[in-house]
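Incident log, support desk, overnight shift.

02:14 A customer reports that sequence design results differ from what the structure should imply. Their input is reproduced verbatim below. On-call engineer (initials T.W.) acknowledged and began investigating.
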């Protein structure tokens, strides 16, 4: 079975408590369970991780380049700022990467409208809450 890394960035460990009017009341553990279930249906092994540290995300993208068939990433606020994550994704090309966000980043503050990941992603899914992770896995599976 192909392995897909599902990587989560800063503050996503707080889901369920964090700004529920924006991010909903599901926890990251709930989303991880959804991903494992979707992975089973799609014939993918899911390796689900979260870190608040930019360098961990860089390390995991590099690791995915060796060990995974693709990546789904919600880099949280690093989406908008991190050239290191941008470079890491470029560095593992052509590994397919799908960007996901719970909220519709384009309907929020202007600083969230820029993604440093999008130029090197297969595509981006945002605004559908936790369902976005399942949609991202379906999109990735269709690509693999
Ligand atoms: C987010 C959107 C980001 O702008 C924000 O910094 C997050 C979560 C989302 O999933 O909607 O932490 O990536």
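02:41 Re-run completed on a clean worker. Output:
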């Amino acid at each position: 079975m192909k392995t897909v890394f599902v990587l989560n960035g800063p503050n996503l460990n707080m889901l369920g408590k964090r700004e529920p009017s924006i991010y909903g009341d599901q926890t990251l553990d709930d989303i991880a369970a959804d991903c494992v279930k979707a992975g089973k249906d799609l014939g993918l092994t899911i390796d689900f991780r979260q870190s608040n540290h930019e360098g961990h995300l860089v390390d995991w993208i590099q690791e995915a380049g060796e060990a995974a068939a693709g990546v789904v990433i919600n880099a949280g606020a690093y989406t908008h700022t991190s050239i290191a994550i941008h470079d890491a994704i470029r560095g593992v090309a052509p590994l397919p990467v799908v960007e996901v966000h719970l909220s519709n980043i384009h309907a929020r503050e202007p600083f969230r409208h820029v993604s440093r990941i999008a130029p090197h992603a297969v595509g981006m899914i945002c605004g559908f809450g936790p369902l976005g992770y399942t949609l991202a896995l379906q999109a990735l599976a269709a690509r693999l």
